[in-house]
Write a structure and sequence with these properties.
Number of helices: 9
CATH class of the largest domain: Alpha Beta
Helix content: 25-40%
GO molecular function, one term: flavin adenine dinucleotide binding
Distance between the termini: 31 Å
Pfam families: DAO
Structural class: alpha/beta
Keywords: Oxidoreductase, Thiamine biosynthesis
Organism: Neptuniibacter caesariensis
Protein name: Probable D-amino acid oxidase
CATH architecture of the largest domain: 3-Layer(bba) Sandwich
C-alpha cells in the first residue's frame, strides 16, 4: 500500500484536462495509474474551449461552482510553472485580468464580490480604454476582475500529456474505446476496450460529455449531456487585444502570438459536431462588436466542441451510487478548465479518505 492505494490499481477513463490532471495527481500521491482515452488526449472539449480561468459572469452560478473556481484559480500559477519545468512546454498562462462591458446585472456582480471577497469592481470609460484602446467606442463603464487569467488550452493539454508520458507511474492508453465494464454487485474489476481488457481496483469515469453513456454501461444514469459550441480564431497581431473581454454573453481571448479567439455558441444538438455559416457570421459580428479592428484580420480557423452540460453547471464528483470502487468526475459544463484543479483535488481527497479541500456533498451523484 502507498498512501491508501494498492500499486497499479487506479484506472482513469477520459484523457481530457480533468482526466490527465487526475492521473498526474494520483501518480504524485504514490499510485500507479492507467489512463484510457478513446481518441488522443485533450482533443475534445479540452482543446475546443477558450481557456478563461474564471466562469463567465461568475455571480450567475451557484455557490458550489464558486467554491471550486476560487480554489482552482490560484492553483494555475503553480501548475503552469510545474509543467514548464517538467516538460519544457509552456501552457501560456496570461495573468492580465478580465473586463466585462454592457453588463445588465452589475449590482448582482458587486454583491457577489462582496459576499465571496472576490476582486471585482466597477470602472469608468477612461479605465476601459486605458486597458483596451481598441475596444468598440462609446462604452461608458464596465466591470474589472484583475486576478482572472487565461491559459492556452491546447498547449495545456500537450504539457499535461507530456507530463504523464514522462512519469513512470502512469500508463497511457490512447485510441482505446471502452465497450463494457466487468462488474459484479457493487464492484468493478475492469473494463473491456476496443483493444482488450484493462483491470483495476479503482475506476474513475472522467469522460466529459460521454460520461453519461459510460455510466449507462453499469446501469446508472447521470444528467450530463453534450452542449455544442462553435468558436472562431483571428490571426491578429500582439497588442491588438491584451486581456479577456466579455460583452453580450460572448468574449474575445488574446494569445501571446497575437491570435484572438471569439466564442461561443450554445447549441443542444446531441453528439453531432459541425460548424455552420450562420454561427460563423454571428461569431464574426461578435468579434467586431467588441474589437472593431478585427475586421482588418483574417479568420484562421472555425471549429466546434461538446461541453458536458449539467444542471446549474455543478459537476458530479465522487463515488458512483451503488458501487464501492467506481467514481465519477464530470459535468463541469462551460467551466472544465476553470474547475479542473479543484475537481481533481477534491476527488483524490475523497478516494484517499483525507480531509477534502471543500465540502463534497454538493457534488455527490445522489445529491
Amino acid at each position: 500500500m502507498v498512501n491508501g492505494f494498492n500499486m497499479s490499481d487506479v484506472l482513469v477513463i477520459g484523457g481530457g484536462v480533468i482526466g490527465m490532471m487526475l492521473a498526474r495527481e494520483l501518480a504524485q500521491s504514490g499510485a500507479d495509474v492507467t489512463l484510457v482515452e478513446r481518441k488522443a488526449c485533450a482533443q475534445e472539449s479540452s482543446w475546443a474551449g477558450g481557456g478563461i480561468v474564471s466562469p463567465l459572469y461568475p455571480w450567475r452560478y451557484p455557490e458550489p461552482v464558486t467554491r471550486l473556481a476560487t480554489w482552482s484559480q490560484s492553483s494555475y500559477v503553480h501548475l503552469a510553472e510545474e509543467l514548464i519545468e517538467e516538460t519544457g512546454y509552456d501552457p501560456e498562462l496570461r495573468q492580465k485580468g478580465m473586463l466585462m462591458v454592457a453588463v445588465e446585472d452589475q449590482d448582482d456582480a458587486l454583491t457577489w464580490a462582496e459576499k465571496y471577497h472576490r476582486p471585482l469592481r466597477k470602472v469608468d470609460s477612461s479605465f476601459l480604454y486605458q486597458k483596451e484602446p481598441n475596444l468598440v467606442p462609446g462604452l461608458p463603464e464596465g466591470l474589472w476582475m484583475p486576478e482572472v487569467s487565461s491559459i492556452r488550452n491546447p498547449r495545456l493539454g500537450r504539457s499535461l500529456r507530456e507530463s504523464l508520458l514522462l512519469n513512470p507511474k502512469v500508463t497511457l492508453l490512447e485510441h482505446h474505446e471502452v465497450t463494457a465494464f466487468n462488474f459484479k454487485g457493487g464492484v468493478v474489476s475492469g473494463i473491456e476496450t476496443s483493444k482488450g481488457c484493462v483491470q483495476a481496483d479503482k475506476v474513475i469515469i472522467a469522460a466529459g460529455a460521454w460520461s453519461s453513456e459510460l455510466l449507462g454501461l453499469v446501469g446508472r444514469k447521470l444528467p450530463v449531456e453534450p452542449v455544442h459550441g462553435q468558436m472562431m480564431l483571428f490571426k491578429a497581431e500582439p497588442g491588438l487585444v491584451n486581456r479577456v473581454v466579455l460583452k453580450g454573453g460572448r468574449y474575445v481571448i488574446p494569445r501571446n502570438d497575437g491570435r484572438v479567439l471569439v466564442g461561443s455558441t450554445l447549441e443542444r444538438i446531441g453528439f453531432e459536431k459541425r460548424t455552420t455559416q450562420e454561427a460563423a457570421e454571428s461569431l464574426h459580428q461578435t468579434a467586431l462588436d467588441i474589437i472593431p479592428k478585427l475586421a482588418d484580420y483574417r479568420v484562421e480557423h472555425h471549429w466546434s466542441g461538446l461541453r458536458p452540460g449539467s444542471p446549474e453547471g455543478i459537476p458530479y464528483i465522487g463515488k458512483v451510487t451503488g458501487f464501492d470502487n467506481l467514481y465519477v468526475n464530470a459535468g463541469q459544463y462551460r467551466n472544465g478548465l476553470v474547475l479542473a484543479p479543484a475537481s481533481t483535488r477534491l476527488l483524490v481527497d475523497l478516494m484517499m479518505q483525507r480531509e477534502s479541500i471543500i465540502p463534497a456533498e454538493p457534488y455527490a451523484m445522489d445529491r
